[in-house]
Structure formats: structure tokens, C-alpha cells
Write a structure and sequence with these properties.
This protein has about 260 residues and is an alpha+beta fold. The protein has 4 helices and 14 strands. The N terminus is likely disordered.
Length: about 260
């Protein structure tokens, strides 16, 4: 029995194939777009998800170890404070757009330049880590997307951060890597190099989330590698293989946020 193929059937068949191909291309495109997110897009999504973009106009206070920290931010104008008590003295160190100053019992105190640099590094470090990923879009920041990885069964984007010398602060040569969830854009791990006190590397694991006023602030377990020759980019593998030593815990207490 012969089968007659009409022009209408051919047209219908070709149309169906065309639409089906478009559907496949669309699916492939969606998957590709997801894989091809840039380091900038990943960072933007992480900042938005964490809510720390609101920190730009706020007053944040918390206790870390035996000191109180206060960050006053107002559209780029900032004062980062560290307050400690020693017998009958209250020492308040301030880092702002205008520079560094120390107040002892509310009176300005002269600080040698060599000591001021150490105080600046310490104050800036605590405030920097307290509000991550806030600050990762500063002008001095350079971002590079590394190969994605899996830690404890969860897929992560791996974003490397370096800094321009101009505007990068006294620690401009430090290198950071952030492991950002491919689905939720949460920072769960980070690693960094440092050069003060002999230098070294650290790997941090988020141990607790503080969800306060719509912002995600973090406590960490802080690790160092058993093998000092381990590469910074390989600290995630070292973590999974139990080749890191817990050095400390980073815990924020009495956190308060008010928005301007």
C-alpha cells in the first residue's frame, strides 16, 4: 500500500522539528547561562541574598572577645570603632575616612606611626570579616572566578579576591577565596593569606548564622593547614581530607543593627 506524503504533512513535520530544536536550544541556553555567571554576578547575588547591602547606611555594634566594636556607615562615610577597658581607662580606637585616632577617656592620644599601622590592621580586619560579603564590591577589589567545586555534597562557586595597591589598604597584597553556594549564593567557607605576625593562611567554616534585621552575619571555625606548603586554592580539599587544624573560633555577641 502506498503512502502519500503531502506538502502540508512535510510542513507540519518541519515545523515540529524546528520548534523542538528551539526548545532544546532554550534548555541548553538556560543551563549554560547558569554555569557562565561571572564572578561579579555571583558576588552581587551573594551580597543581595545576605542583606548586608543595607549595612551601607547603618550603625552596627557587637562584642568580639573582650572588646566592643561599633561601625557607623553613612553612604560611604564611615567610622569603625574598637572600645576596650583597662583598669580605670577606656580606650577607643577609631578608623574613619579621615584616618586613625585613639581616645583615652574621651581625650585624643598621640600614637606612634608604627603602632597606628598595627591598630588599623586589627580594627579593619575585625570589621571587614564581621559583615562579609559587604565590601567585596569596593573599587580596589579584583575578582576572578576559579573552577567550581563540591564540599560536603554541596556545589560552590569559587571566587578569588585580590586588591589594587591604590585603595587596597595596608593589606592590599592579601588574597581571599570565597566558596559561594551555586544554588543559594551563601558564603559557607572562605580562605585567605596574611602577612602580619609572620604570615600564613587560614580557612574559615561558617559555624553559625545570625539573622538580624534582615542581614546574615556569621560566626566561624578558623583553621590553619597542617602542611604549610598547601596552596590557598587547595584548602577546601585539605578541609575535606581532615588536613587542617582548628586554630580558633570567631564569635560575634550582642549584635545590634539600626538603619539610618
Amino acid at each position: 500500500m502506498s503512502y502519500l506524503i503531502t506538502n502540508s504533512k512535510i510542513t507540519h513535520f518541519l515545523t515540529y522539528r524546528f520548534l523542538f530544536c528551539l526548545f532544546l536550544i532554550s534548555l541548553t541556553s538556560c543551563k549554560t547561562d547558569k554555569k557562565l555567571l561571572t564572578a561579579q554576578q555571583i558576588t552581587d547575588n551573594s551580597i543581595k541574598m545576605s542583606g548586608v547591602d543595607k549595612i551601607h547606611n547603618s550603625t552596627l555594634s557587637f562584642n568580639f572577645r573582650d572588646k566592643k566594636y561599633i561601625a557607623e556607615r553613612n553612604s560611604g562615610v564611615f567610622v569603625l570603632k574598637r572600645i576596650s577597658a583597662m583598669k580605670d581607662l577606656q580606650i577607643e580606637d577609631q578608623l574613619s575616612n579621615q584616618g586613625f585616632q585613639r581616645l583615652i577617656n574621651s581625650r585624643p592620644s598621640i600614637v606612634a606611626d608604627s603602632m597606628a599601622v598595627k591598630y588599623i590592621e586589627s580594627i579593619n580586619s575585625v570589621h571587614y570579616f564581621s559583615v562579609l560579603p559587604y565590601g567585596l564590591n569596593d573599587n580596589a577589589v579584583q575578582k576572578k572566578l576559579l573552577k567550581s567545586t563540591i564540599i560536603k555534597g554541596k556545589k560552590y562557586y569559587k571566587v578569588q579576591i585580590t586588591f589594587n595597591e591604590d585603595g587596597g589598604g595596608v593589606d592590599f597584597d592579601d588574597v581571599f577565596i570565597y566558596w559561594i553556594g551555586a544554588e543559594d549564593f551563601k558564603i559557607d567557607y572562605l580562605a585567605y593569606t596574611f602577612h602580619v605576625n609572620g604570615g600564613g593562611m587560614r580557612f574559615r567554616e561558617v559555624r553559625k548564622e545570625h539573622l538580624i534585621e534582615g542581614t546574615r552575619l556569621l560566626d566561624y571555625n578558623n583553621f590553619k593547614p597542617k602542611d604549610t606548603n598547601t596552596k590557598l586554592s587547595d584548602l577546601d580539599k585539605a578541609f575535606e581530607n581532615n588536613k587542617l587544624i582548628k586554630a580558633s573560633e570567631i564569635n560575634l555577641e550582642n549584635i545590634k543593627i539600626t538603619f539610618n
